[in-house]
Amino acid sequence: MTRVIFVGERPVDAVPADDRGLAYGDGLFETMRSHRGELPWWEAHWARLAAGAARLGLPLPARALVREVASTLLDLGDGVLKLLVTRGVGTRGYAPAAGTEPTWVLSTHPLPGAPRPGGLHLRWCETRLSHQPRLAGLKHCNRLEQVLARGEWPAPGEPGGDAFDEGLLLDVQGDVAGAIAANVFVSVDGRWCTPPVELCGVAGTCRAWLLNEAGAIERRLAPADVESADAVVLCNAVRGILPVARLGARAWPPHDAVVALSRQFAAAHPAFAGLE
Fold this sequence. Notes:
Order of helices and strands: EEHEHHEEEHEEEEHEHEEEH
Number of helices: 7
CATH architecture of the largest domain: Alpha-Beta Barrel
Helix content: 10-25%
CATH topology of the largest domain: D-amino Acid Aminotransferase, Chain A, domain 2
CATH superfamily of the largest domain: D-amino Acid Aminotransferase, subunit A, domain 2
Number of domains: 2
Number of strands: 14
């Protein structure tokens, strides 16, 4: 892994100890898939980051500088680039000071391993997502609900840790919210559907593509809607479209709708060409 840290336009050796991202999770992040030294969905990720920053009143570093630094970190293979931006240094207390310089971190990571052959195995999580409309949809730095949910079964490589690939989360009202680290889509009567994100959840960039380009719609989903769906997929910007093979007692064989969706997505993102 390679990592660089900046405060405003100045490179620094470490995140300052009094940074508000450390103290309060006061920040946002983007996780992007790189392909042959490029970031095919850079524009979509920056647009989401900027929209989140505007909602939080968060200062952003200069876009051109971030892109320039990112280009120096990327090699010619495929990988993951993470950009984390915090409000920066502040005094003790919750009140955000005016005129702060953002702290931002760029780091590179290897791609995750290949998905389980035949499709993912999922489980329902006991942890539920709370409702907070002012934060809903944002990829903010407080991910404690996701940490608790992922802690419900062992890590990969530990006994029982490989039984499941991901967990599905409900909100406090019992509606489906999404997966721990992905959005969920279900095929019902030939139409892809995903939960809305007005109250909780993350408005993923891959989710946005499915809504804009694949004819998917938002609708409230109960657990029974997922379990009775014709097909289920998870998606995120790093792993693309991931077919689901099992959720509890329900199993899904390969489905033509998933194949078609994967091919359409592969045509839109060069990192997934030939992988569908």
